[in-house]
Amino acid sequence: MMYKTVTHVLFDLDGLLIDSEKLYTEAFTNVCAMYGEVFTWELKKSILGFQGHECAEKIIKALNIQTSVEKFMEECRKEYEVVFRHVQLMPGAQKLVEHLHNKGVPLALATSSGQDSVDMKMQNHKDFLKNFHHLTMGTSDPEVTKGKPDPAIFLVCASKFPDKPSPEDCLVFEDAVNGVKAACAANMQVVVVPDPRIEPEQLQNATLQLKSLEDFQPELFGLPPYD
């Protein structure tokens, strides 16, 4: 496989840089249980990478829960306040991000989460966020008209670098099928570090698939190698 040299790097957040996906699962499991329903992996898989409102809609519909999206989201928010205090960085996340930042590679975050959610999750990781030139947050950014798998979030995110790199000059890091689809639709190369339960054929359009961020070799994409 030939990889093309890139100059800018865009990172997803949930499940890639931080272990928040398992905390979302905990929150959704607790809220579904209030309504006597079970939040399964099948359901989890169908909402990975979607924005909050879409997730709530899908869960309510799939489980036929008799409540409004707003009420369900409010219940989830209460759960988030408890579970998100314990967010940890994923293995290799700090090393990779700090390395690229220290070598002068422009970095940005492209997350489906909104500002409130990011603030809650990153309350103990504020220094880590300083490595990024900007954060594009799908749920609270009016320019991001559609969630992943639509490419909007990555195109908007790339456009916020002062030197306006073309999509071909950007490398995306993702963990979800919808994120890979969005990056491909944006015409960007994409490295995926997936949940091991995701079927490999769903990720075949990714440029590179890794088990961990620790396995990434920056020089494959013309980025500065580790010292």
Structural class determined from secondary elements = alpha/beta
Low-confidence stretches: none
Share of residues in strands:
5-15%
Number of strands: 6
> Taking Cα atoms only, what radius of gyration do you get, to the nearest Å?
17 Å
Q: Reading side by side through the largest sheet, how are the strands ordered? A: 3-2-1-4-5-6
H/E series? EHHHHHEHHEHEHEE
Outline type: globular
Helical segment count: 9
Helical percent range?
25-40%
Main sheet: strands, sense, barrel = 6 strands, parallel
Report the span from N to C terminus: 25 Å
Mean pLDDT: 95
Question: How would you characterize this protein structure?
Answer:
This is Pseudouridine-5'-phosphatase. It holds the Pfam family HAD_2. InterPro entries: HAD-like_sf, HAD-SF_hydro_IA, HAD_2, HAD_sf, PGP-like_dom2. The chain is of the alpha/beta class and 227 residues long. It has a six-stranded parallel sheet with strand order 3-2-1-4-5-6, with helices on both faces. Helix 9 links the parallel strand 4 and strand 5. Helix 1 crosses helix 4. The mean pLDDT is 95.
